[in-house]
Structures are given as C-alpha cells and as structure tokens.
Write a structure and sequence with these properties.
Blueprint lengths: L26 H4 L6 E4 L2 E3 L5 E3 L1 H14 L16 E5 L17 E5 H7 L4 H8 L2 H5 L4
Antiparallel strand pairs: 1-2, 2-3, 4-5
Length: 141
C-alpha cells in the first residue's frame, strides 16, 4: 500500500518519509525570526536586549501607559479620544525596523499627528528641533 502525500506514516509518524518528499518542516524549523528569540507568545527579544511585540501586546502596553499617564508626551494635554492616541518610540526604529525596540521603557503616548510628524527621529531630537504646538492642536479638543 502506498501512502498519500499528506498522510502520516504509521511507522515514522511523519509526512516526508517512505519515498515521499514534501515541503513539510517541523514547527520549530519554520518559526525562525532572525536574531529574535521567542520569550513568550507575542514577545521576542534580541541578544542586545531589544524587544519586539505582537500587535496585541503593543495594545496592552498602550493601555498600561494610558492608565499610568493619560497625557501626550509632547504637548502635555490630556487625551480626549482613544483613536487619536499612538505609541511612540523614544529611539527611532530605523529603516525597515532595523533598530526596533518595543520595550515598555522605550514607549510613550503621543497624539497621532505628532507621532507621524516625528517619523524616524529620536523623540528628544524631534521635540527639541522639529515639534511645534500646532501639530498637537490639530488633534486637541
């Protein structure tokens, strides 16, 4: 009897044995993330200490920051609309996210317009050289 391509071999408990070839790879081989090592579901850490979070974990961190301090980091106004709040990184993420660090110490809350205006600049550089109060006033009450 010949086994079908997607049928598990009762002898070896695999799909790519007994004369069959397949692109099947065990999960541990498919879950490569370059330098990032999985710490727990939704959180990866690089050897240099940077963190990368899933969207759901970033949302949880946003809620935590909002509970702790519900003000824009740039203009110090209290947020009025949840849709206008965005997470901003203190250090730039770099081209293509090369220096991405989603660690809680590296995140602050800002109005969406200010965060978009910040772009890839470091937060302190942006606030010192480029930020203008008019950016946050567009989003204010």
């Amino acid at each position: 009897m010949k086994l079908k391509a997607k049928e598990i071999c009762p002898l070896h408990r695999r799909k790519d044995c007994c004369g069959r070839t397949s692109n099947y790879a065990p999960l541990k081989d498919r879950a490569k993330h370059g330098i990032w090592q999985l710490i727990r579901p939704g959180l990866w850490r690089a050897p240099d200490g940077r963190e990368r979070c899933s969207a759901s974990l970033l949302k949880a961190r946003k809620a935590l920051l909002l509970k702790a301090w519900p003000f824009c980091y740039a203009c110090k106004q209290k947020f009025e609309d949840y849709r206008d709040i965005e997470l901003s990184h203190r250090t730039g993420k770099g081209m293509g996210g090369a220096f991405r660090n989603d660690a809680i110490e590296n995140l602050v809350l800002m109005h969406a317009a200010a965060n978009r205006d910040q772009g890839s600049l470091d937060l302190e550089t942006y606030l010192r050289e480029k930020w203008k109060p008019q950016v946050c006033e567009l989003a204010g009450p």
